[in-house]
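A.,

Following up on our hallway conversation. Structure tokens first:
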């Protein structure tokens, strides 16, 4: 029974690790106001609509259909679209899609990427881009969910934990877009109602938040500091990732996801 449970947990972790990161957002480069693109991702496919300027300095739209190339980038073709003047009834015969070049989106981290595109007969552009922040999200609330994590790289291999999972209740308090506290109450840990807390300044980039220098307190961990990445609201609640150094070369990392209890 125990062996089957461990095997199931390994499969859970493998499935978690293999899922494609989601880069859906609005992107721009800080040095070129008015230039940017919308990226919508479906598993390992990305649709990008980018707005640039033509030789006449007028807005020009292109779209790209990119797929994961297995080497850290999404690559594919660029298309130019033409259609009926917006003030007239749509005429399907006037909709024309023309192959116009190629493009690639290469993530640097969860927040930044390199975007390169070639327009046939015009040239190639490569830009460092980042998610564009629009308005603050409300993170504060009461949630319930689960986490999955691991401890690895320990100098003493006996301290490594390939996978651990816990259910929790989570209370999040937020001060504008400047700081937040995440208080996890573990409800199925080694002792009842253990409380683990992350607290610190937050930065907001696009759809995501980051807590780069979190104060970390948890009876289940030796770490006193941590990094929370890709912390964001979802359609049903909230999720994020954390990373901490437990000492002895041990690295603790994991992912949490929870539903908003107010949606019941």
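Then the amino acids I'd put at each of the 264 positions:
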């Amino acid at each position: 029974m125990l062996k089957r449970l461990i095997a199931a947990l390994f499969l859970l972790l493998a499935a978690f690790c293999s899922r494609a990161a989601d880069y859906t957002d609005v992107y721009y480069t800080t040095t070129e106001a008015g230039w940017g693109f919308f990226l919508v991702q479906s598993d390992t496919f990305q649709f990008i609509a980018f707005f640039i300027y033509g030789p006449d300095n007028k807005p020009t739209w292109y779209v790209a259909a990119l797929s994961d190339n297995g080497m850290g980038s999404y690559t594919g073709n660029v298309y130019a679209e033409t259609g009926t003047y917006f003030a007239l009834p749509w005429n399907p015969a006037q909709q024309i899609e023309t192959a116009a070049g190629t493009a690639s989106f290469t993530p640097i981290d969860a927040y930044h990427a390199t975007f390169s595109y070639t327009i046939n007969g015009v040239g190639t552009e490569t830009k460092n881009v980042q998610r564009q922040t629009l308005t603050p999200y409300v993170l504060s609330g009461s949630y319930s969910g689960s986490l999955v994590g691991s401890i690895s790289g320990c100098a003493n291999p006996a301290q490594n934990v390939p996978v651990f999972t816990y259910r929790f209740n989570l209370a999040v308090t937020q001060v504008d877009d400047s700081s937040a506290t995440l208080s996890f109450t573990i409800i199925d840990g080694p002792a009842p109602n253990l409380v683990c807390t992350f607290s610190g300044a937050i930065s907001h980039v696009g759809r995501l938040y980051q807590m780069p220098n979190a104060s970390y307190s948890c009876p289940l961990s030796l770490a006193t500091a941590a990094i929370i990445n890709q912390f964001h609201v979802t359609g049903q609640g909230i999720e994020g990732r954390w990373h901490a150094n437990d000492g002895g070369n041990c690295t603790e990392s994991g992912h949490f996801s929870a539903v908003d209890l107010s949606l019941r």
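The CA atoms of residues 120 and 202 lie 42 Å apart. Curious whether your intuition agrees with the design.

B.
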